[in-house]
Design brief:
About 25% of the residues lie in helices and about 25% in strands. By secondary structure, it is α/β, with parallel strands linked by helices. The chain folds into two domains: about 5-215, Glutaconate Coenzyme A-transferase, CATH 3.40.1080.10; about 240-270, no CATH class. The strands form two sheets. Strands 1, 2, 3, 4, 5, 9, 10, 11 and 12 form a nine-stranded mixed sheet that branches. A three-stranded antiparallel sheet has the order 6-8-7.
Length: about 270
Amino acid sequence: MANKIYPSADAALKGVVADGQTLAVGGFGLCGIPEALIDALHDSGVRNLTCISNNAGVDGFGLGKLLETRQIKKMIASYVGENKEFERQYLAGELELEFTPQGTLAEKLRAGGAGIPAFFTKTGVGTQVAEGKELREFDGETYVMERSLVPDVALVKAHVADKSGNLRFRFTARNFNPAAAMAGKICIVEVEKIVEVGELGPDDIHLPGIYVHRIVQNAHPEKRIEKRTVSAAAPVDAVAAKVEAQAAIAQAAVSGDVSAPKVPVNKKQGA
């Protein structure tokens, strides 16, 4: 079995990325982005890139770093918000942008990975999205033809990989990552944990290793949050806290656990 594991993100990109390539980058907002691989791509100095991604990170993080250094010439994306530099470059005519409905973008990647060159969808019919594209009638409805996407390189993030490249994603961090991985001619994966072959159960594998060419471990990604919303602390409800404490003591007596229960500060904390 060929060794797919590389010692660093820089090493994983070496000999693969080049000027003028088209890259698919997984993630949704900052959730599930391959942070170390994006940083290594930034440090590699490659330029004139076309990047396929739902969005372009935020200012100073994720793909936003490559926008700041003008390494990206074109974005194929469905969302611009959260990145002021992305917006500024587009409005100033400094960045090409192919706006794509989010579901259509996902299907373009999925179809590319499945070997389907094009497909028809009703999404975008009658709007700028359909301008210059083939329209066709099916069952009395108008559809627009969309070409699939097959990027030169896919940079994706998974939670766990085994040494043969089988991947498991974590919750919503799965998002665009499997589709990007399947579509890329070469797929490089950043993971938090690497296990031996056989440690992932067959039903736990979300993407088979046949799609994966290189793996790099980043055990402690930053996982930055775009907008952190924190609610105010709930007021202390002394009566409710007393009732909860009494109930906990009664339950402990029934179960034979005589250890002192931890009394919640307020109802919200004890929930």
